[in-house]
């Protein structure tokens, strides 16, 4: 089939690829590169520098806006620039990963695909319902899709990684790893409690830059640090990969319905099993007893930490490669893009036919 011309809209917070934290940006950068490798023409809209293979990079800001993450204005300034940018590009489809950008989709000639990277309940659920009809909404897991089954989903595409670029190790060191953000939803306090009771050293690599994260760290996490519990803070990509490949397991005791959880797949790619709670996409990503343990309560988390040596590093890597490699994700998005383009062409043809009949 003919190559597509795709406008990829990244969020305004981090450069692509991100140097440290930035799961959406990492996924977006990998998708851009593979779509280009598959023969498509990709125009990337982002901030700061461009480290991808996009044919053209259009920045809405000279620097990333990580220090303003969560504020409304960076999103709005990023979004309001899109009509002018897209008017100068001849594209078949727009793929928007930002929050505010899809608000302008209804006025576009090109179809807009939107990946729902965040929750689809509460106010975010209302937001996506209001967008229905103007965008082609993609879920990142079946779990996320079931939570809001009434939304007009265009499909489900699991997030993915370039598995072959993740270091694989069979010989593990004697520590469990927590990798994520310093927030109650991620379960870092629960991870500390489980590791302490199991008598296993825990290393914590967590983003802690927003005010709410810093407050939570000082109030809940800092008092629990000490012998056997090491706080590393936010780490860069190289350090993250070293930790993931060396850890005996990734401890992921989330307290909310995580839409996907990229770190689970990253751990599996490194041959590292995942010990997690059964919320959100966890049962969909982790095969219990094969690539990790899905635990219902604190006691089972503790028990699982003693059983991770029973699991095969090779099997973890193989499952990551077969189910969550970037090639699979790119092919599925291609199908979503082509379906969106075909629907638009069919609707346009119908409108023209109806007009001529009238």
How would you characterize this protein structure?
The model has no long low-confidence stretch (mean pLDDT 94). The radius of gyration is 21 Å and the shape is globular. The chain has 2 domains: 5-160 and 325-357, Glycogen Phosphorylase B (Rossmann fold, 3-Layer(aba) Sandwich); 163-321, Glycogen Phosphorylase B (Rossmann fold, 3-Layer(aba) Sandwich), CATH 3.40.50. The protein is α/β, with parallel strands linked by helices. It contains 13 helices and 13 strands. The strands form 2 sheets. Strands 3-2-1-4-5-6-7 form a 7-stranded parallel β-sheet. A 6-stranded parallel β-sheet has the order 10-9-8-11-12-13, with helices on both faces. 39% of the residues lie in helices and 17% in strands. It starts with a strand and ends with a helix. The chain has helices spanning 23-37, 72-80, 82-87, 122-131, 142-147, 188-198, 211-221, 237-246, 262-269, 282-285, 298-305, 313-323, 326-357; strands at 5-9, 41-47, 56-61, 93-96, 112-116, 136-139, 153-156, 176-181, 202-207, 229-231, 249-252, 274-276, 292-294.
């Amino acid at each position: 089939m003919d190559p597509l011309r795709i406008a990829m809209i990244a969020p305004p917070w981090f450069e692509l690829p991100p140097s440290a934290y930035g799961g959406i940006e990492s996924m977006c950068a990998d998708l851009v590169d593979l779509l280009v490798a598959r023969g498509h023409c990709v125009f990337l809209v982002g901030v700061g520098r461009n480290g991808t293979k996009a044919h053209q990079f259009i920045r809405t800001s000279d620097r990333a806006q990580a220090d303003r993450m969560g504020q409304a204005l960076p999103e709005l300034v990023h979004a309001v620039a899109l009509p002018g940018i897209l008017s100068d590009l001849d594209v078949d489809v727009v793929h928007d990963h930002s929050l505010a950008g899809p608000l302008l989709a209804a006025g576009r000639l090109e179809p807009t695909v939107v990946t729902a990277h965040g929750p689809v309940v509460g106010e975010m659920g209302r937001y996506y319902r209001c967008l229905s009809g103007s965008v082609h909404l993609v879920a990142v897991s079946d779990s996320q899709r079931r939570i809001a089954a009434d939304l007009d989903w265009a499909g489900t595409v699991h997030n993915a990684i370039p598995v072959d670029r993740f270091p694989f190790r069979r010989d593990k060191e004697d520590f469990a790893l927590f990798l994520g953000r310093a927030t109650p939803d991620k379960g870092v306090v629960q991870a500390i409690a489980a590791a302490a009771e199991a008598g296993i050293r825990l290393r914590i690599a967590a983003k802690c830059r927003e005010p709410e994260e810093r407050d939570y760290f000082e109030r809940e996490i800092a008092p629990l640090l000490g012998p056997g519990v090491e706080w590393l803070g936010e780490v860069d990509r190289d350090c993250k990969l070293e930790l993931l490949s060396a850890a005996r397991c990734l401890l992921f005791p989330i307290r909310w319905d995580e839409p996907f959880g990229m770190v689970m797949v990253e751990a599996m790619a490194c041959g590292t099993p995942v010990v997690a709670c059964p919320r959100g996409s966890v049962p969909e990503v982790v095969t219990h007893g094969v690539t990790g343990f899905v635990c219902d309560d604190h006691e089972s988390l503790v028990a699982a930490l003693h059983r991770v040596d029973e699991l095969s590093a090779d099997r973890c890597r193989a499952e990551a490669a077969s189910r969550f490699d970037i090639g699979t994700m790119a092919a599925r998005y291609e199908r979503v893009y082509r379906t969106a383009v075909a629907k638009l062409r069919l609707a346009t043809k119908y409108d023209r036919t109806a007009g001529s009949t009238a």
